[in-house]
Design goal:
This protein is α+β, with helices and mostly antiparallel strands. It is 36% helix and 29% strand. A 6-stranded antiparallel β-barrel has the order 1-2-5-4-3-12. It has a 6-stranded antiparallel β-barrel with strand order 6-7-8-11-10-9.
């Protein structure tokens, strides 16, 4: 059996070579020929040992830098993935600010009504078209049957009042008793009286009975409260005429009216009282 295995022989050979090189360098370092030999050996050492080590160190550094860039890219992708939610939040806040600006403008410029502005604090998805809850109540002077508007126009009336909150029944409620006395203004500014009977959920339109069957009502004409009936004050915008049809075997006309825009989405509403009636 051999006294040394193959690996041990290789290691021993390398050690002997370096010892020999060291002795030669020591002996010849003082002569010109020695310098030449020294330079050759140094170059050999650099190419066999130093350069490979430098290459390994450089590779390690490059790999570390690459890994850092990879982590930064992962973070960037994460931030970008959240961007749609940031955009949605921004658009929502922008819409709320625009609505609030309109509310403040109405309060400053409306000479007909006193406004008590409120936040919508509850609108259940199961009763979305029926009711909302607002954060004003008896302490704010709110009373049952007072009209409630958004920044666009009439949306309903107060039906329940507690100390700090109130419930509002919307005009889009499926309650058949939720009627409103209205008027349609024609092209000459004449008022044609009628009743808002109900809300057609399928069509998304108010169903209105107009008393005068001879009135020339056209698409786009304004529908607003008439003030008759004692609940809603006169002059609150409801919507605009969408279509007209004659009643069979009855007097009058049936009108489908498009509600005010943004009826499905509002953050701020106002309980209104005519200024002559405000306490």
């Amino acid at each position: 059996m051999s006294k040394f295995n193959r690996l041990q022989k290789i290691i021993l050979g390398v050690i002997i070579i370096f010892l020999t090189l060291g002795i030669i360098l020591r002996v010849v370092s003082g002569s010109t020929t020695g310098n030449f030999i020294y330079d050759g050996i140094s170059m050999l050492k650099y190419s066999m040992i130093d350069y490979p080590l430098q290459t390994i160190r450089g590779f390690t550094t490059d790999f570390a830098n690459l890994w850092q860039v990879h982590e930064e890219n992962d973070q960037l992708r994460y931030e970008l993935s959240k961007n749609p939610s940031y955009k949605a939040k921004y658009e929502n806040e922008k819409a709320k600010n625009e609505e609030l600006s309109k509310a403040l403008k109405i309060s400053d410029e409306d000479e007909r009504f006193s406004h008590t502005w409120a936040n919508v604090i509850d609108r259940d998805v199961t009763t979305w078209n029926n009711t909302i809850t607002i954060d004003v109540g008896e302490k704010d002077g709110i009373q049952k049957d007072q009209a409630v508007v958004s920044v666009e126009g009439l949306i309903g009336k107060v039906v329940e009042v507690s100390k700090y909150t109130s419930k509002v029944k919307l005009l889009t409620s499926e309650d058949k008793l939720n009627t409103v006395s209205i008027k349609v203004l024609d092209e000459d500014g004449n008022a044609n009286m009628g009743i808002l009977e109900s809300y057609d959920v399928g069509k998304g339109r108010y169903v209105i009975t107009l008393f005068d069957e001879g009135a020339e009502i056209k698409k786009g004409m304004t529908v607003m409260t008439s003030g008759n009936g004692g609940v809603y004050p006169s002059g609150l915008l409801i919507g605009e005429v969408e279509s007209v049809q004659a009643l069979i075997s009855q007097t009058g006309q049936t009108i489908y009216a498009k509600p005010i825009k943004n009826f499905q989405s509002f953050e701020y509403v106002s309980v209104v009282v005519p200024k002559g009636d405000a306490s």
